[in-house]
TrEMBL record:
GO terms, biological process: aerobic respiration; electron transport coupled proton transport; respiratory electron transport chain
Protein name listed in UniProt: Cytochrome o ubiquinol oxidase subunit I
GO MF: cytochrome bo3 ubiquinol oxidase activity; cytochrome-c oxidase activity; heme binding; metal ion binding; oxidoreductase activity, acting on diphenols and related substances as donors, oxygen as acceptor
Keyword match Flavoprotein: no
This protein's record includes keyword Lipoprotein: no
Gene: cyoB
Organism of provenance: Sphingomonas montanisoli
Membrane-protein topology: Multi-pass membrane protein
Length: 666
């Protein structure tokens, strides 16, 4: 009916074979995802919520709403990423000897690549950025971030990247090159399919969002602190957010550059990372790990800040060694640039290079260890309240220290030659990411949830979540340390030695226990919403907090503070309570605020279309969407209607309502 060249022009390399209808696992997944998606769309339509969501959430430039949306994205992607983890664990538990399991190597390779990509780029980063977005402006007494529109755009670019990864599940396939899309596996001759292209475009789009967000956060902390809040009076969480985002600004352009060069190899036929014509695949590894190791600290530094805030609050004491905590954070930030080569001691750089990076890796553990002692000394002789956030802190200290020690072991080049590419390494980084980052994120969500929504999370289901993750982690990953030490290789979907099977069965049981923790978290949120009146907090300060975010109502008004707070000491809110400072109840003025805009959603949607078109070689659509992106960006620059004033009467009304609430609860 149509000439083949016309079809190719219209659809590029997209054909009926691109849809995996012959794969039963993918088909069932597609049906489940579509059913859930259509159910949500139907519910939103039935209750006429589209207008509300567009006006109040999707187009919002309020840092608090954007923070919450980042958290929701992270939780949704956690469910997807963990589904991949369960599939891997099930495969490895049964694929021994004559049994090939249920996943062939082609499919298994995509699953472990997608799992790592999603968990780091679309779970850990959005959850961290979400917490920083929500809490940091409140902690420094700001009304919003420095660039409110940029904040909205950053979020929707991250969503666009996440959606591209999700599309790859059902249209075409994902990369088989691991979570960093390694060459030479992802060179054009080895992977002529769409997988590496999906990866590259998804992460380029999301990476722009993360970089812009980091610039925004750093500018906010440097320029928008409340009067009197010098750098050494900033809360530790704000300090760690600053260092983390400074790191992100420095490293994400390197990753973007590495991906751009690989794109040129795949699209234009250059030879940056090929095995011939002057190319060097190891240069790609160097570039991605110059990003990759500091990225670990981009994730873990804000989490260290969360632990510091929680430890100080629930021991009723000022953080022990505040200055040393700040200096340790800055030292980690600087040293994190000097350790990347420990990811490939086996590259053949020679003893002197390996020695330098091995020693640098051991040195970076010193400021991290200093932080552990600071938290311990803060707890020493404190009146510790074992609320849920504090339980996470103790679990973190016990779990993370083991991960730190295995990290120092891997920093010894001769030991690494034995353990490189083994499951011991995989267990190590899951130890520090789960025991450090994930535990800290749950602690932060438990801690700041009442600030965001005005009611606490249910304690019983919180404990089920806690024990599911803690017990599940140890059951899932201790056996992997053991088989790794025995020399078992990573990224393998079938094993010949039947004596190893018992360890993988135990690991699979651990993954199921973690699943109980994840499901309990979802139930915890649902139960808390249902019982919100019982769990209500009218004070704005349910934990007897010490920093400025607890001085405003829960949830805070759009303008955060009716009057910009004056800071006199570290732990500004504790200092105000100690001095008997009174809330202002009159003399309110109009508040200048940024106006909502839909430009972020539209530009990010166009970026996603551009990415999809480039993956499938649909050149006309790529050109159209790129042109529309450019024109849309230019049009937005002519939008001068970017701000408005909340009238003084409205501010007075909200503040009076809070005064009554406080009086009723007193």
């Amino acid at each position: 009916m149509f000439d083949e060249s016309v079809i190719k022009t219209i659809f590029g390399r997209l054909t009926w074979e691109s849809f995996p209808v012959h794969e039963p696992i993918l088909l069932v997944t597609f049906i489940v995802v579509m059913t859930l998606g259509l159910g949500i769309v139907a519910a939103v339509t039935k209750y006429k919520l589209w207008g509300f969501l567009w006006r109040e959430w999707f187009t919002s430039v309020d840092h608090k709403k954007i923070g919450i949306m980042y958290m929701i994205l992270g939780i949704i992607m956690l469910l997807r990423g963990f589904a991949d983890a369960l599939m891997m664990r099930a495969q490895q538990a049964i694929a021994f000897g004559a049994s090939e399991g249920y996943l062939n190597s082609h499919h298994y390779d995509q699953i472990f690549s997608a799992h790592g990509t999603i968990m780091i780029f679309f779970v850990a980063i959005p959850l961290i950025v979400g917490l920083v977005n929500y809490v940091m402006p409140l902690q420094i007494g700001a009304r919003d971030v420095a660039f409110p529109f940029l904040n909205n755009l950053s979020f929707w670019l991250t969503v666009a990247g996440a959606l591209l990864v999700m599309v790859s599940l059902f249209v075409g396939e994902f990369s088989r090159g691991g979570w960093l899309n390694y060459v030479p596996v992802t060179n054009l001759q080895n992977s002529p399919d769409t997988g590496p292209d999906y990866y590259l475009w998804a992460l380029q789009i999301a990476g722009v969002g993360t970089t812009l967000s980091a610039i925004n956060m750093v500018t906010t902390i440097i320029k928008m602190r409340a009067p009197g809040m010098s750098m050494m009076k900033m809360p530790i969480f704000t300090w760690t957010a600053l260092c983390s985002n400074v790191l992100a600004i420095a490293i994400f352009p390197v990753l973007t550059g590495a991906f751009a060069l690989l794109m040129l190899d795949r699209y234009v036929g250059t030879n940056f990372f090929t095995n011939d014509l002057g190319g060097n695949p190891m240069m790609y590894w160097n570039l991605v790990w110059i990003w990759g190791h500091p990225e670990v600290y981009v994730l873990v530094l804000p989490v260290f800040g969360i632990y510091s805030e929680i430890t100080s609050t629930f021991t009723g004491k000022r953080l022990f060694g505040y200055s040393s905590m700040v200096y340790a954070t800055v030292v980690i930030t600087i040293l994190s640039y000097l350790v990347w080569l420990h990811h490939f001691f086996t590259m053949g750089s020679g003893a002197s290079v390996n020695s330098f990076f091995g020693i640098a890796t051991m040195v970076i553990s010193i400021p991290t260890g200093a932080k552990i002692f600071n938290w311990l000394f803060t707890m020493y002789r404190g009146e510790i309240r074992y609320e849920l956030p504090m339980m996470w802190v103790v679990a973190f200290m016990l779990t993370f220290v083991v991960g730190g020690m295995t990290g120092v072991l891997l920093a010894v080049p001769p030991a690494d030659f034995v353990l490189h590419n083994s499951l011991f390494l995989v267990a190590h980084f899951h130890n520090v990411i789960i025991g450090g980052v994930v535990f800290g994120l749950f602690a932060g969500m438990d801690y700041w949830f009442p600030k965001a929504f005005g009611f606490r999370l249910d304690r019983f289901w919180g404990k089920v979540t806690f024990w599911g993750w803690v017990i599940g982690y140890w059951v899932a990953w201790t056996p992997i340390y053991i088989v790794g030490l025995m020399g078992t290789t990573r990224r393998v979907n079938h094993f010949d030695d039947p004596s190893l099977q018992i360890w993988f069965v135990i690991a699979a049981i651990g993954a199921v226990i973690i699943l109980i923790g994840i499901l309990a978290f979802v139930i915890q949120i649902a139960v808390s919403i249902i019982n919100r009146d019982k769990l209500r907090d009218t004070t704005g300060d349910p934990w007897n907090g010490r920093t400025l975010e607890w001085s405003t109502s829960s949830p805070p008004p759009a303008y955060n503070f009716a009057f910009t707070p004056q800071v006199h000491d570290l732990d500004a809110w504790y200092d105000m309570k100690d001095r008997g400072a009174e809330r202002p109840v009159k003399g309110f003025l109009p508040v200048h605020m940024p106006r909502n805009t839909g430009a972020g959603v539209i530009l990010s949607g166009l970026a996603m279309v551009l990415g999809f078109a480039m993956v499938w070689y649909i050149w006309w659509l790529a050109a159209l969407s790129a042109g529309a992106l450019l024109i849309g960006g230019i049009i937005h620059t002519f939008n001068y209607n970017r701000d408005y004033h909340i009238p003084a009467d409205e501010v007075a009304e909200q503040e009076d309502a809070r005064t009554k609430l406080l009086a009723a609860g007193a």
